[in-house]
Amino acid sequence: MERMTEAEWREFATSGTKTGKLAITRADGRPHVTPIWFTVDGDDVVFTTDENSVKGRELRRDPRATLCVDDQRPPYSYVMVEGEAALSDDPAELRRWATVLGGRYMGEHRAEEYGRRNGVPGELLVRLRVGRVVAFKDVAG
C-alpha cells in the first residue's frame, strides 16, 4: 500500500466515471451516505443536489462532509476527501456545472441535455472545499 501524491489522487478521482460516495451526518446523529456525480475544480469538489434532498437539507444545517472515491478492482485504490461545503443556487453556475457533470458521466453528446435537466431551480451547486485528504493506491498489492 502506497500513499498517492496530490497529482495522483486528483487524476484518480477525476478519471473515468467513478462515482463518489458522499457522507454527511443527519441532525439526529445518524450517518447518511449516497453516491454522487462530481468533479474537481481547483480546491473544490463540485456536485449538484436537490435542495430538498437529505444532502441538500443536511449540508445547509452542517456543511461538513466526506467524499470517498474508490476503485473496486484489485489491487484497489481509494481517495477520501474531508471538507466543508458551500451551497449556491446561482442559475448560471448551476447550469454550467450540471452540464460539465452530464458530460463526464453520460458523454459529451448528452452534456447539454443533463445540464438542462439538472441545472434548474430547486437544485443546488455544492462546492466541497478540499481539507484533509487520505489517498492510497495498490492497497492489496
Please describe what this structure looks like.
With 141 residues, the chain is of the alpha+beta class. It has a single domain, classed as Pnp Oxidase, Chain A, CATH 2.30.110. It has four helices and eight strands. It has helices at 6-14, 54-61, 91-106, 111-118; strands at 2-3, 20-25, 31-36, 39-41, 44-50, 64-71, 77-88, 123-137. Strands 1, 2, 3, 4, 5, 6, 7 and 8 form an eight-stranded antiparallel sheet that branches. β4 and β5 (44-50) form a beta hairpin. The longest helix has 16 residues, at 91-106. The chain is globular and about 45 Å long.
SSE string: EHEEEEHEEHHE
Output mean pLDDT. Answer: 97
**What's the helical proportion of residues?**
25-40%
Q: Please name the CATH topology.
A: Pnp Oxidase, Chain A
CATH superfamily placement: Electron Transport, Fmn-binding Protein, Chain A
Question: What would the keywords be for this entry?
Answer:
141 residues; alpha+beta; Pnp Oxidase, Chain A; 8-stranded antiparallel β-sheet; 4 helices; 8 strands
Write the layout of secondary structure elements.
Layout: E1 2-3, H1 6-14, E2 20-25, E3 31-36, E4 39-41, E5 44-50, H2 54-61, E6 64-71, E7 77-88, H3 91-106, H4 111-118, E8 123-137
Helix pairs in contact: 3-4
